[in-house]
Amino acid sequence: MRLNYILSDLGIGLRRNMSMTIAVVVTIWVSLSLFGSALLAHEQVNLMKGNWYDKIQISVFLCTKDSGGRGCSGAEVTQEQKNRIQQVIASNPDTAPDGVFTETKAQAFDSFKKLYKDSPIVSTVTQDQMQESFRIRLKDPQRYQNLTSAVAGLPGVDTVQDLRQYLDPLFKALNWLQVGSYFGAGLLLVAALMQIANTIRLAAYARRREIGIMRLVGASNFYIQLPFLLEAVLAAIIGAAFACGTLWMIVYFMVMRQAQATFRVWQWVGASETFRVTLIMVLVGLVLAVIPTFLTTRKYLKV
To answer: Residue limits of the ABC3 transporter permease C-terminal domain (predicted)?
Structure first.
């Protein structure tokens, strides 16, 4: 195999199809950038779920004389009622071992004062107005409904709160955003696949006489296909490099320098997740180059 001939043929092909090659590079750049962004969004949602769902607790607030819950009768919760509630919580199979914490009125009042330390409302609230509560950690945060339904309505229980009711709408919106990103990225990847196929088809058609002569003199299929394959791979690598650079810039300027500094409570994607996504982007770019090249040049290999 003469390497100088292959490289010469590659240069001729690039010069003949320069505009189409640039279009392929730009299409791969845009499509892989959106595809990588969708993958990173998926990583980000998983990090946020893992960060928050593991910390989710069910809070069972007990009755005071001013409570209006269905388990309240206009009086403070009795010790007997508290024992019964605690028994139901401890016997539930979804409750984690040592996962029950009791917050007294004094502890609730201290937390209230810290939370509203700069607000005048602190002076209008007394410790007796605070609610005792049980804070329960689950073995599996996804199985919160069983315990909630078992405790709600028991005598002495005012309300049962679960942070999932506030987080689930957020994660559903993020999941829909992911689906939209994957859909858009999929359309662009298909467009890139078709554009590479058209570019290789035009290049092979323009050199069909040369291909026929090479077949007659005994050149192998791979030897004939190699210049076209290198042309497609080169365009894919350049487009993937631009896409990876774009993704790294987005992560650095928008996530590492902005989001992490502003929203410290969240766990954000970083270098390891971005590196993993860029590897996938490069592999996808190479697949986009190799498959249509082999498929579109096969018809010209027959004499």
So the answer is: 183-302
Which residues does 111 contact at the CB level (< 8 Å), separation at least 6? Answer: 103
Q: Collapsing DSSP states into helix, strand and coil, what is residue 136?
A: strand
Contact 59, 108 (CB under 8 A): no
pLDDT tens, residue order, the chain (303 aa)? 455 655 565 565 556 667 777 877 888 888 888 888 888 888 887 777 666 666 667 888 888 888 777 778 778 888 888 889 888 888 888 887 778 888 888 888 888 888 777 778 878 888 888 888 888 887 776 677 778 888 887 888 888 887 766 667 766 777 787 777 778 778 877 877 887 777 777 777 777 777 677 667 766 777 777 777 887 888 889 899 999 999 999 888 888 887 777 766 567 888 888 999 999 999 998 888 888 888 877 766 654
CB 220 within 8 A of CB 297: no
pTM reported for the whole predicted model: 0.61
Give the C-alpha distances (Å, rounded to integers) separating 232 from 114, 132, 175, 207, 254. Answer: 63, 68, 34, 16, 32
